[in-house]
Design brief:
single chain, alpha+beta
Length: 95
């Protein structure tokens, strides 16, 4: 069938589990910090949408994906304003 539109806070990436592909979404997020307009969010709920040939995931893939979405569903942060992968010292030294 036709895919349904779905709102999300962010696209976290793609995951391949047992040769099946999934799009990982931050379905819900909360504002964790706001410093001078640079906002950092914490993922509150992660979802995995199958794509490609994985419209109905196998049990093995569904189990693997459930573990990943559980890990990303708490304590995972993202920002569209700030590169969280660069150390603060480097950001201050080389803006």
């Amino acid at each position: 069938g036709k895919p349904r539109p779905q709102a999300c806070a962010a696209v976290l990436g793609c995951l391949t589990a047992h040769q099946e592909s999934f799009l990982l979404l931050a379905a819900e997020a909360t504002l964790a910090a706001d410093a001078d307009g640079q906002r950092i969010f914490e993922v509150a709920r992660c979802e995995a949408l199958p794509f490609g040939s994985a419209t109905d995931p196998s049990g093995e893939a569904a189990s693997a994906v459930a573990g990943v979405t559980q890990l990303l569903g708490k304590g995972f942060y993202f920002s569209s304003d700030l590169d969280l992968t660069r150390r603060l010292q480097l950001r201050l030294a080389n803006p």
